[in-house]
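Sequence in, structure out. Go.
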Amino acid sequence: MSLIERHWYRPRGWLTALLAPPEGLFALLAALRRLAFRRGWATRERLPVPVVVIGNINVGGVGKTPLTQALLREFAARGVRVGVISRGYGGSAREATEARPDGDPAVVGDEPLLLAAAGAPVVVGRDRVAAGRHLLARHPDVRLILSDDGLQHYRLARDLEIAVLDGRRGLGNGRLLPNGPLREPPSRLKTVDAVVVNGDGAALDLPAALPRFAMTLRPGACHALDDPSNTRDAAGFAGLNVVAMAGIGHPQRFFDTLAGQGVAAGRHLSFPDHHAFAPGDIPADADAVIVTSKDAVKLARALHDAAQRARLWVLPVQATLAPDLCEWILARLKMEHGR
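Output:
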């Protein structure tokens, strides 16, 4: 973690003063952009089906992908056909491109491949309006679109906004980039329709009337990279030189989850979010390297050596929500099951 990132959660007075001017410029530009859409100077475009935005006002991993995966499962169980549009961070695609489970993460990004594996049509693109139209043209049976990480993509009109927060880190020092982790001021939470808190967020100061949902990430059994049916519990890693490796927004959450499962990792390796893994990233002396599902989709493409692949293990997580966010969305949108 860089000095500036540490400052976001443990502020340093001298750095706050140093970063105040660029923070002020960022705040001005962001405010002008919001004002342009609010006053109608910039045009919002509406898709022919309801759009639910799932995003955050801060940078870094907060758990949007497992939340979206959970919603896709719940909507499918209710017979509601849902599609996903995403920016496709980490991918090279500029135009609207469909992400398929066996796609290339270098083109469409890592998170869209995980969402596509859930059985939903997923389209990535820098222009989310174009991505939504592309999706509907190819999947006209889609009744609802989830926009992954599109809270600040104001050109796309939305029916509901859901903000996701990390219960442990919250909003950090409450300041805007680069002086803090926020893309928009904390007051933006007063305008969203609901908030999902990942983990214990008892200390978060949120608007009293804002609907709030608690998300818990439950880890499953570690499985081999090439064979999900080959699982191993903590005892199976005992006595081995285990390395935990993550290239996500908040690697420490993954390391803590792994330790909570009783797996003693001798080393923790952190890489930037959406890191493009290469064979050289795998420690040669490790007996087992445990990674996230998000990183696994890239490693499956990057590693061709059978011996390296055999040492890779994946720790999956699944989100549970209370109360029922899927039913809340359907009720707000006045949508029925199975139609």
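Check: The CA atoms of residues 34 and 102 lie 37 Å apart. The chain has ten helices and 15 strands.
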